[in-house]
Amino acid sequence: MMRLDVVSLAPEALAPLLKLGVIGRAFSAGLASLHLHNPRDQTSDRYRKVDDVPYGGGAGMVLKPEPVFAAVEAIPQLPRRRVLLMSPQGSLLQQSDLRRWASDYDQLVLLCGHYEGFDERIRSLADEEVSIGDFVLTGGELPAATVINGVVRLLPGTVGSADSLLDESHTNLLLEHPHYTRPAEFRGMAVPQVLRSGDHAAVARWRQEQQQERTRQRRPDLYARWLDQQE
Predict the structure, then answer these.
(1) In sequence order, what are the beta bridge partners of 85?
(2) Is the residue at 200 inside a domain?
(3) What pTM did the predictor assign?
(4) What is the signed CA dihedral for 11, 16, 19, 22, rounded to 10 degrees?
(5) CATH for 47
(6) What is the distance between the alpha carbons of residues 165 and 66, in angstroms, rounded to a whole number?
(7) pLDDT score for 159
(8) Do 87 and 128 reside in the same domain of the chain?
């Protein structure tokens, strides 16, 4: 079982994952467990204060280190654990990261920032810093939910057919090929004849060509990396 611990000032933002389609069923089936930890629960003052003004001045409030450290240290630790800090300064999330975390670890601890930022010393808790894009959100809850969704769907037993994970976008840098279903023609748009031919080899070639062409047009950066791998 994969244990997922989220340290967040808004833990209610993660609770919907427990009822989210195949991800929710994975939690219900015991393939993964989700544990939410609010740093406010680690405070001792009457106001449950978790933030303070930054040294040196500046706008906004900064998340204090004491309640975050206490929250992390109170979490049971499994042998194969990875602590991830959700941060716009982190490395851009890749499908390969999700696969690595899903296969190499039994526990992920996800730290969510808030307010203007977090005390720099909080970074020392993390093994990795993760970003989902070059933009800033009000907190790390949505990035954490993204990581959890991406990891849990890769756990054995979550997706009905494991083969469906092999050809999807970003698995091998290439984007996924187009998909079609019935009817064969809809509003003047027809399913490519090769997909109706019954020639499995031809279908495989067509799909590979489509993956390459779609990636070349839509994500030339990925296509260039894929070409480098072919050399």
Answers:
(1) 111, 129
(2) yes
(3) 0.89
(4) -100
(5) 3.40.1280.10
(6) 41
(7) 87
(8) yes
Helix (H, G, I), strand (E, B) or coil at 126: coil
Last residue of a domain, one of 152, 179, 209: 152
Backbone angles phi and psi of 205, in degrees to 5: -65, -45
Average pLDDT per consecutive 10 residues, the chain (231 residues; last block may be shorter):
98 96 97 98 94 92 96 98 96 97 98 90 98 95 98 92 57 90 95 96 96 95 94 82
How far is Cα 100 from Cα 82, in angstroms, rounded to an integer?
11
Q: State which residues form the domain around 203.
A: 167-230
Omega within 30 of 0 (cis) for the link into 156: no
State the DSSP H helix or E strand holding residue 217, giving kind and residue range, or none if neither. Answer: helix 200-218
17 lies in a domain?
Answer: yes
Q: What's the confidence (pLDDT) of residue 1?
A: 96
Query: Does 71 reside within a domain?
Result: yes
Give the model's pLDDT for residue 151.
98
Domain count, the chain: 2
